[in-house]
Request: fold
Amino acid sequence: MAIKNNILSQEEYEHNFSDIHPPFERLSSALVEANRCLFCYDAPCTNACPTSIDVPQFIKQIVSRNEKGSAKTIFDSNIFGAGCSRVCPVEKLCEGACVFNLLDEPPIPIAKLQRYSTEKAIAGKWDLYLRKKSIGKKVAIVGAGPAGLSCAHGLSLEGIDVTIFEKNPRGGGLMTYGVAAYKVTPEFCQDEIDWITSIGGIEIKYNSMLGRDFTLESLKTNYDAIFLAIGVGVTRELDIPGEELEGVVDAINFIHGIRSMKYSEIQIGDKVAVIGMGMTAIDAATQSKRLGAKEVNLIYRRTEKEKPCTDAELELARLDGCNIIWLASPAEIIGENGKVTGIKCNKLSLVEPDSSGRAAPKLTGETFTLSADMIIKATGQLPFSDLLEIEKIEHSKGKINTFDNQKTNLSGVFAGGDCVNGGEEVVNAVQDGKIGALSILKYLCC
Ligand code: SF4
Reply:
């Protein structure tokens, strides 16, 4: 067993990482699906969308060939409407709520239709918004992910001058760095950011990090308000022997590598074990397979019923040939000559629900060992608790406490996205940014 790169041919990499949900190839295909929509009153699909996109309205606009109107309807609710059409777990949101599910018929492909309109807008650089003249107020936003950019767009439209401080060399947050490459490419993310910022009044300062390059105090002296969209930090440690061995990587760094290097440059094991069952774990497992790993085991401490990923994501992992191991937790990473050779796991059973409301896992006393040369940790990310303490921002276990429309305990400081909710969907972050912008406008009396 060996961790190596350049396992597949260029053609194989391209095939494995091609768009998993290809767009409509022809207008007629989009129209056939759009015409199935019943344009429901009090539409459940809209109610299921965290940004409340008026789904029947934008679909009706596609039917009447008003594509600009359709894109505007989507963007008015969700400025990341193009990205969300590719990464949203629609089976548990809009499409999961579509009335056709009750009729045992396929739901309207809302995401694909949304992609149809929004990608036309971005590709065509359509001028859908006109920014008001600058009113002389300045807002600093920390983080150029979906929450930060959504807030920036809402503020800039109203004539606020926005500066975004982003710690990475590119914007987009987890959209750019943390999502499987077969869902969105970094190039697509950049096009979306360019389109969002094309209204003007938004400057992004890259490689600029709170706590390292500036403080909240310094921002307060130069800006009228601040919106924190700093996301969450590094992957949680497993805290088991052998974690320091060569071949143990964290899922966010692994996915970050896939999105910033050539596929042929990514090191991948023959036998990969992924710890966790969230969306990041699935993205890491499926991409390991697509990079050429012979065997991928996903290890999760509860059962399928309690899994955090969606059914569709789990199905994708299965279709990609990943093995799923339920009711197991890592006990020790085994190695030889400083390198991973396997992982010993505890077998678990479930007892009464824990404080999270889910059944709690319990050791059975039995163990098993898997052969592995690469272990990917995808057990959730730690919040920036220390940073929040230093900056005197009230939080609960690292999640920023907000009240009354994204306000924090500090006057003029607002927050939204993963740093508040601990890590939900992109669409939730977009909504936080939207509400944050409205709240800041009210605070600035605009
Ligand atoms: Fe159309 Fe389904 Fe939404 Fe009804 S629930 S408006 S059929 S997409």
User: Anything to note?
Assistant: Residues 426-443 form the longest helix (18 residues). The chain is about 35% helix and 20% strand.
